[in-house]
Amino acid sequence: VQLQAYGGGLVQAGGSLRLSCAASGRTSRIYKMGWFRRAPGKEREFVAAIMWSGSQTYYADSVKGRFTLSRDNDQNTVYLQLQMNSLKPEDTAVYYCASGVPEYGSAWYRAGSYDSWGQGTQVTVSS
């Protein structure tokens, strides 16, 4: 599976951004998809994830109620969107989308359970 993330940018605190991740290739094997982020000087952290079968979603406590996942697909590509509202300066980070096949397990919050990663997109929230 190949992933490409886009939609980042600069926004003022309280504003909104929508990130998108386009997945191509063997998308039929996708078991889960998620977003992680890495802020300057910090470790990568889980943001949100969706289980492809059943569409159950999970969010980090820090983004719950502000971020929303959605999915879509066309003939050859699946899309995962992350709508980010009420953005805060602490949301500033490089955001990465990821996908995982069943063999990597169901730990949606763990980066190691994802086998494909996008290139990252920068989100900067100014105060």
Q: Which descriptors apply to this entry?
A:
mainly beta; single chain; four-stranded antiparallel sheet; 127 residues; seven-stranded mixed sheet
Task: Write structural notes for this entry.
- A hairpin with a 6-residue loop joins β4 (32-38) and β5 (45-51).
- The chain has no helices and 11 strands.
- The chain is globular, with a radius of gyration of 14 Å.
- It has 127 residues and is mostly beta strands.
- The strands form 2 sheets. Strands 2, 4, 5, 6, 9, 10 and 11 form a 7-stranded mixed β-sheet that branches.
- The N and C termini lie far apart (37 Å).
State the end-to-end CA separation: 37 Å
How would the global form be characterised? globular
Q: What gyration radius follows from the Cα positions, in whole Å? A: 14 Å
Low-pLDDT segments, ≥5 res? none
Number-wise, the strands total: 11
Element-level helix/strand string: EEEEEEEEEEE
Total DSSP helices: 0
How much β-strand is present in the residues? Answer: over 45%
Largest beta-sheet details: 7 strands, mixed
Q: Kindly report the average pLDDT value.
A: 95
- Helical fraction equals under 10%
Task: Assign the structural class, choosing from mainly alpha, mainly beta, alpha/beta, alpha+beta, or little secondary structure.
Answer: mainly beta
